[in-house]
Design goal:
The protein is an alpha+beta fold. Helix content is 28%, strand content 36%. The protein has four helices and eight strands; from the N terminus they run E-E-H-H-E-E-E-H-E-H-E-E. It has an eight-stranded mixed β-sheet with strand order 1-2-3-4-5-6-8-7. Strand 5, helix 3 and strand 6 form a beta-alpha-beta unit. Helix 1 packs antiparallel against helix 2. It is globular, with a radius of gyration of 16 Å. Bound molecules: coenzyme A. Coenzyme A binds next to strand 5, helix 3, strand 6 and helix 4.
Length: 183
């Protein structure tokens, strides 16, 4: 089980570890909060709520081809401050491809937590017996996320024009990928 204490750039110390069932309510709350910003995630807040029961059920299932990480600043539900998921689909031809998603609560951004969690996740992927490619999608205007992914070796592999509609505005997104071990 991964379990690390991480000191952020501003001196705060947080715990990064694999998700447990009891983290469910805190994770739903985090995802809802980030969705309410209406800037970075695919899901609208009501869609987060609609998917919450399935997400809570999934947390009780462990899958060797999926890493679910979170960060906590304390033990209360609302102390879940970040989550990261990296996992494969179960089709054999793309079993080596893992998809990444991550989000950090607003007041913990820009302090190196994303960097630390991504480093842990990519080391896990590199050590995994099957995974060799990691990919993600990111809104084209999400400069901080794109900078972080580039720093860790992701390259832009495609741009989907007008991929998302947020209110009346259409936004492009980028598909980014990296190979975590030679093939
Ligand atoms: C994107 C996200 C995961 C990054 O995590 P984070 O903890 O804020 O990021 P970090 O502090 O570790 O690093 C961000 C890097 O981007 C840089 N950065 C910050 N703002 C930037 C900007 N506007 N343009 C370019 N680079 C920027 C930082 O300097 C830092 O690089 P450095 O470590 O070389 O100094 C986090 O901000 C987040 O959850 N955002 C909202 C949800 C989201 O966007 N999720 C990703 C969807 S694909």
């Amino acid at each position: 089980m991964l379990n690390d204490r991480v000191t952020l750039r501003d001196g705060r110390i947080v715990l990064v570890r694999e998700v447990e069932s009891r983290d469910g309510p805190g994770m739903v709350q985090l995802r809802r909060e980030v969705a309410h910003e209406r800037a970075y995630t695919l899901l609208e807040p009501d869609e987060v709520d609609a998917r919450a029961p399935g997400m809570l059920r999934d947390l009780s299932v462990t899958d060797p081809n999926e890493l679910r990480l979170l960060a906590r600043c304390g033990e209360r539900d609302d102390d879940v401050i970040a989550d990261l998921t990296l996992g494969t689909k179960h089709f054999r031809r793309i079993a080596h491809v893992a998809k990444l998603g991550m989000e950090i609560r607003k007041d913990f951004r820009g302090a190196g937590l994303g960097d630390a969690m991504l480093r842990i996740a990519l080391a896990w992927a590199a050590a995994h017996p099957v995974i060799s490619r990691v990919e993600l999608q990111v809104f084209a205007d999400n400069a901080r996320a794109i900078a972080l992914y580039r720093k860790h070796g992701f390259v832009e592999e495609g741009r989907r024009r007008k991929y998302m509609r947020v209110g009346d505005t259409y936004l492009d997104d980028l598909v980014m990928g990296m190979l975590v071990k030679p093939l």
